[in-house]
Amino acid sequence: MMNKKLLTMLLVAGMAVMFITTGLYAGTDVPDTIKMDYNQYKKRKKQPPKSKFIEFSHKKHNEDYKISCGDCHHDKDNKPLDLKIGDNVQRCAECHTKMAKDKKNKKDIMVLENAMHGNCIVCHKDVNKKAGDPKGMKGPAPASCAKCHVSLKKK
């Protein structure tokens, strides 16, 4: 009788450890390259089908450029998140859910386009300024519209 209880307790404890360990390693599997294929933008002039979808190299930004997760990923108060590989991460569109600019508030940060442009362009201009361009438009990081929004006609 005692052996059955001990065996049952060990089995339950082992299963608990297995579930906890699995939970620790479960997280978002982030692809090396992320395609910004938000279908809600099909009517926009600079978005598909008139231009290619923007492809963002997550791996290159993180590993080669040494940009930390918190430089892009933030909480609702715009404070950087302290993320590690394997943590659960949401895409921009999970929080920045508005797909169209409001005529009264064109800079609304909840609009996905504003959030992505703000995050990408501001960072790219800073990189270019550090590289010597006072306006931040020319340098190693693309900062103009056509550098990211590549026309399908230019194939």
TrEMBL record:
It holds the Pfam family Cytochrom_CIII. Binds 4 heme c groups covalently per monomer. Keywords: Electron transport, Heme, Iron, Metal-binding, Signal, Transport. Its cofactor is heme c. The keyword Heme applies. Heme c 1 binds at residues 58, 61, 72-74, 92, 120, 123-124, 145, 148-149. Residues 1-26 form the signal peptide. Heme c 2 binds at residue 69. GO terms for molecular function: electron transfer activity; heme binding; metal ion binding. Residues 43-149 form the Class III cytochrome C domain. This is Class III cytochrome C family protein. It comes from Desulfobacula phenolica. The lineage of its organism: Bacteria, Pseudomonadati, Thermodesulfobacteriota, Desulfobacteria, Desulfobacterales.
